[in-house]
Specification:
The protein has helices at residues 4-20, 27-44, 71-79, 144-162, 164-169, 192-201, 268-283, 310-321, 338-344, and strands at residues 49-53, 58-63, 87-91, 101-104, 107-110, 115-119, 129-133, 173-177, 187-188, 215-222, 225-232, 246-253, 287-295, 298-305, 327-333. The chain is an alpha+beta fold. The protein has a 6-stranded antiparallel sheet with strand order 10-11-13-14-12-15, sandwiched between helices. A 4-stranded mixed sheet has the order 8-7-6-9, with no helix packed on it. Strands 1-2-3 form a 3-stranded mixed sheet. Strand 4 (101-104) and strand 5 (107-110) form a beta hairpin. Helix 1 (4-20) runs antiparallel to helix 2.
Length: 345
């Protein structure tokens, strides 16, 4: 039975000749084609949209509209695409260069009108945070429609300059204003790429494939259950996340728990399992252990690996040697570690 990704590509290939002459079609036919393709795409993921160019080279862009939670689905769908003659299939809106002007509800927003100021985050000096200065930007609550239109236009400028992936994942904080303090120096938006690249290279782990592991522990309560997280925070700005795109969540069920869902049994065996998997994938350079989540009657261990088959081989060996606990796992495609990012910051 075909999966929903295959169904989407079958629909697109079936109608591709129409998309190649899209501009020559009447309005009703254009609307029908776009609605059908969007319906099929949303059957795969409601968070994805598309852009089509009917000028050679033909392009189909699968976009998540800047919502990182859907980036992995966009990338995976494009990975499933069959070879399509004369078409370039792209996951997420790419950078296309500088100097573009966009019109939002009659408001023209040009890249040249905006400048930026780097913001230093005292509690997170490695973070990339910027303030965009636009002379027509009203303060919040003054002219909300104009402010919204300008911000939408600036995001379009940023998408063109940086690409959807970088705007969403590299820039962690974005502010908007019309004013600049006398002591601040605003830079042309075209210099933002250089600033981001410089900021990345200044990070201590930049370019290190297997950095030294630094941990942070968090404890809390969720739905009445005690939860304890142990996160490898040294992987926060890890340079090679896309090389290990498969998130494997290994779950070991506790045999004895208290009323809060926390184990009362000796969990040294479970800790040994975690250490075995971590050492195995690190020594063979298969990937990284980034998170442990204890509570609600189980231990979850999160591993990002190069492929989606190695974890099964490792766990098959473990199941043969350890039968005192139930071991299961789930795998998902998450090339930018979006699921883990909120924990490893």
């Amino acid at each position: 039975m075909a999966n929903k990704g295959d169904i989407f590509w079958s629909r697109f290939v079936h109608d591709k000749s129409k998309y190649e002459r899209f501009s020559s079609l009447d309005a009703d036919t254009q609307e029908h084609l776009l609605d059908e393709l969007l319906f099929t795409l949303h059957d795969y993921s409601e968070g994805l949209f598309f852009e089509i160019s009917d000028q050679k080279p033909f392009e189909l862009i699968i976009t998540a509209q800047g919502i990182a939670d859907y980036f992995g689905q966009a990338e995976y769908l494009v990975k499933q695409a069959p070879p399509i003659d004369d078409w370039k299939i792209i996951a997420l809106k790419p950078a296309i260069g500088s100097g573009y002007t966009f019109e939002i509800n009659g408001t023209r927003v040009s890249e040249e009108d905006s400048r930026f100021i780097p913001i230093t985050e005292e509690d997170s000096p490695d973070a990339i945070a910027i303030q965009i200065i636009h002379p027509a930007m009203p303060a919040e609550g003054i002219n909300d429609q104009l402010r919204t239109d300008l911000i939408m236009g600036i995001y379009s400028n940023l998408d063109s300059l940086l690409g959807e992936r970088s705007v969403t994942l590299d820039v962690e904080r974005l502010e908007f204003s019309s004013e600049i303090s006398p002591e601040d120096k605003a830079l042309p938006l075209s210099e933002l790429i250089s600033y981001i690249n410089w900021k990345k290279k200044e990070r201590s782990n930049y370019g290190v494939r297997f950095p030294e592991q630094t941990y942070a522990a968090y404890e809390g309560e969720v739905d009445g259950f005690v939860k304890m997280l142990m996160a490898v925070v040294s992987l926060n700005y890890y340079s090679y996340k896309p090389d290990y795109p498969y998130l494997n969540i290994v779950e070991l069920a506790f045999n004895e728990i208290d009323e809060s869902g926390f184990p009362v049994e000796d969990i040294s065996e479970i800790q040994d399992v975690e250490a075995f998997i971590s050492d195995r994938i690190r020594s063979t350079e298969l990937g990284h252990h980034c998170l442990s989540d204890t509570g609600n009657g189980k231990r979850e261990m999160w591993f990002y690996l190069k492929d989606d088959v190695s974890i099964d081989e490792i766990l098959t060996q473990l199941r043969e040697e350890m039968q005192s606990h139930l071991i299961s796992y789930t795998t998902m495609y998450d090339p930018y570690w979006v699921k883990a990012n909120e924990f490893i910051k």
